[in-house]
């Protein structure tokens, strides 16, 4: 009687063990495929692709005495993090050029821009001053 009870349990155990071995084999096959070197796109091809974005000049049109004058937009300092400054939506480092001006200094919440004619001091506007990073 004991033999009759043990045999079905042994058959179930062996079937479950075969299922586990098949699953382990399947996982090993997946891991070996993941480990294979994949060939990607050549970096030169990526560099040669034209950007899909349209670049426009953000000129501001002002009316003075009935005449419209086109002027360059003002620079807006939005953030300073790790000696990098976000000016008018773009990130810059010390020495980078912003329009026709070069970044001369980034410290203590102030960015100094300079070209051959003059210097410009940028500070974070009060509307952005409420932002805090904790």
Write the layout of secondary structure elements.
Elements: H1 2-35, H2 43-48, E1 60-64, E2 67-71, E3 77-81, E4 84-87, E5 90-93, E6 97-98, E7 101-107, E8 110-114, E9 119-123, H3 126-129
Query: What is the radius of gyration?
Result: 33 Å
Question: How much helicity do the residues have?
Answer: 25-40%
Largest sheet: 4 strands, antiparallel
| Classification by helices and strands | alpha+beta
Spell out the helices and strands N to C.
HHEEEEEEEEEH
In order across it, which strands form the biggest sheet?
6-7-8-9
Strand content: 25-35%
- For this structure, the quaternary state is single chain
Tell how many strands the DSSP assignment holds.
9
Question: For the residues shown, what is the average pLDDT?
Answer: 78
Shape field: elongated
N-to-C CA distance: 72 Å
Query: What is the tally of helical segments?
Result: 3
Uncertain stretches: none
């Amino acid at each position: 009687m004991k033999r009759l009870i043990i045999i079905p349990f042994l058959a179930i155990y062996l079937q479950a063990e075969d299922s586990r071995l098949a699953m382990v084999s399947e996982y090993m096959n997946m891991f070996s495929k993941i480990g294979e070197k994949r060939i990607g796109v050549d970096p030169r091809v990526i560099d040669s692709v034209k950007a899909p974005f349209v670049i426009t000049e953000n000129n501001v049109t002002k009316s003075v005495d009935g005449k419209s004058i086109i002027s360059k937009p003002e620079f807006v300092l939005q953030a300073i993090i790790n000696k990098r400054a976000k000016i008018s939506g773009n990130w810059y480092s010390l020495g980078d050029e912003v329009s026709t001006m070069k970044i001369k200094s980034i410290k203590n919440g102030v960015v100094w821009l300079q070209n051959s004619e003059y210097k410009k001091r940028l500070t974070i506007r009060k509307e952005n001053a409420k932002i805090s990073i904790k």
